[in-house]
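In line with agreed milestones, work has continued on tokenised descriptions of protein folds. One protein thus recorded appears below exactly as we store it:

>
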Amino acid sequence: MPMSVDVVITAGDGRAAKKVFMKNKALLEVDGKSILRHIIEVLRASDMIGSIVVVGPKAQFEGAIGDMPVELIEQKRNLTENAWEGFLQTIPEYRRTGRLTQDIVHAYQDKYVLGIPGDIPLITVRELQEFISSCDMQRYDYCAGITSERILEQFGPRKGKPGIKMATFHARDGNFRQNNLHLLKPFKIQERIDLVLKVYEYRYQKELANIIRSVIEIVRLEPGYTGRTLWLYLLLQMSTALSSIGMEPLARLTRYPVTKAELERLMSGLLHLRVKLVETTIGGAALDVDNEKDFLILSLRYKDWMRMIDHHLA
């Protein structure tokens, strides 16, 4: 691992982005400051982090960021373009000229960055460093963070206290949620970056439309894996549905073929990359702000949850 990792925060509010209370989620205030500022302060407190690029509505973000040492880039048309431009801005030669040349691509072929969204106020230095330290970027091109349901249950509803129940995918190894942390080599993933970001954009799998869109994108961009992808996808959906109605023995049987290793093989084949799922044990990064209800609960429970995280780390 290098001495430090550059970070791209994609916090645009284009057509596909969800707003909460008609506002960019990164600008919502939790405990007296914007979520974006919470994230940047955590990043700046880690000695594993190098430069920070924030991509979003520049005029709106300038006040929230103030004099913090970050590079603020005006958002593009969609998540793919925001992520790509954010990555290019971490390259000094591109930043100076604004031109992407073959020499730059060759020189930075193995450069990797940490990609995160702008709506995860419970991220901590320890979780960030746990994830980065667990990513072997000599062996892999893309490491995607996951957190187990067992860890995430601590943020769920308690007697007399509201909480957030987060959706998970069910595998033989356990139930997990993608936790918003991504370490990847964009030049390696360049040909498939649209697939990665489209599937991420459709990650809210409780919505039938997003399930259909995810399948369409996979079929369109990598038809050779259609059968295998649909089979595992169907098993994941069936297992989740059976668990939700209390048929856990049948759910366990349904998810038996689905393992983390099998999902890694599938993702590696789809993306033409070496993919690894990396588990973190703290969970705060998995709590993104999806809707008004979750935001209100997170705002109410923020201090309690941060104390809980600190106690867990102690």
